[in-house]
Amino acid sequence: MVTRLRRYGQIVDVGIKYGFGIFLDEIDPDATKRKFFDKKTKPDERSVYERMRLALEELGPTFVKFGQMLASRTESLPPELVREFKKLHDHVGPVPFEELRPTIERYCGPIDETFEFFDETPLAAASIGQVHRGILKDGTIVAVKVQRPNIRETIETDTLIIESMAKRYERVNPAVRAYNLSAMVDDFSKMIKKELNFVSEGKNADIFRRNFAGRERIKFPKIFWKYSGPECLMMEFIDGIRVDDVDGIRFMGYDPTDFASLGFTAYLKMIFEDGFFHLDPHPGNLKVTPSGELAFLDLGAIAIIRPERRDLFIKLLLAIVDTDVNLIVETFQKLGVNITEDNEDDIKDQLYYALFDVEGIELESVDAGSALESIPRIMNLYKIQIPGTLMSLLKVIVMVLSIGTELNPKFNFYGEARPYLREILEARYLSRSSFQKTSHTLLESAESIMKLPKIINRTLDRMAKGNIQVDIVAKDVENLSSTIERASDKILMGLVSSALVIGASIVMFSADFEYSDYLIALTVIIYLIAFVLGLATLIKVLYRDKKK
To answer: What is the mean pLDDT of residues 28-57?
Structure first.
């Protein structure tokens, strides 16, 4: 087990080896080993970005993984550095099999008893683990992903060191703060600790398989939970070639351009229909199988979008596709992005310039995803932070676009995305279920309206009986109480007048009524009383309006 102090010494040695002693001096000028900096280093003609990549490779899995994460931050890092760090996906050395055997046998049992065949040469080596091919006793071909020994302790130590170095460097070099390095390191720390638990990756695979059940030509590996756990994951072996192997796809008899559309629509479904999407779609994690399926591997890193935010993301992407900068800014604000009035017009101008007429440009003539990448860059210019999920969404779409243009140089994001997104919106708002929800709402509203006369009648009845009690708790409430009392008096007077007129009229015009001077006089008096009450009510109303 490597202590933090010893590991820090190793990092210093590697940094000096690749010519970053000055950088280390800025962070910690008291490191004694750097006194021999001039003696230990020679001029290096390689670019600074290449030397950074080589240093990360030599520092091991945690730093390689950190470099892979930085390679996706195209909105804030120099393109040359991003291109160099993308090479880290293909440069992770394997661990000797005998160091992994104890972990495999802890979960799978003795290899000779569980497997008919087990290949000790890894199929693939990654920063956290590596994958071996095996055949179970029943003939099932499986892939066994096993963690590197002591990787958890190494990652915990390394992430603490990286966090400390990032904070120190931002403190001594204010210009670096614009890149928000501390936030990048924090995101990385959370992500890599989640990926350390292979059970989470297995559950993710099960969720993806369920979401894509019945969807042709999309494949996710089946998990064998009997032989799986936090440090070892046994899954269905999926044979195939990397999705960016254009010649290999053609050799198998398939058209590479089909897989550009297939992968793109699969990600649109993940993001906008399921709200559960794969965060690491680099070519090494996507395979084309001999049967013509597109298989997704290494599912440890995922992101989730809640339904209410999913609709906003759909509107945002449609606004980007339609070059509607007003809707882009409006949707950003609804997503919690703080855009002030002072810089709103400038941001709209820059967004419009970045997206202007890009729909008509074939992606072979521009950098893949350049229009989408420009959006977070513009926000970064104004020190505006974009929510993590939105940043992940844009990053994933850019990565998928990059693969799409390799498979089909004429692949047009706008032509593919617009009809699909509109179809999702129509299904969301014009489906039978949405109509049912709307009809239920209208019925509830109608029922409430139908109940309104009964509620008013009950309230008036209580007023007439004096059963309504108003407690005065404040001046405003007292004024409200007086208003209600005056209104109830007027309503009561109107009701009494109406009742008198109606009652007298019924008596007067009844067929069985026998005229007499006494009854005629009584009826006239009733009419007069009703007239006086109505006149008094009218005078009060007119007087109140005049007073206002």
So the answer is: 66
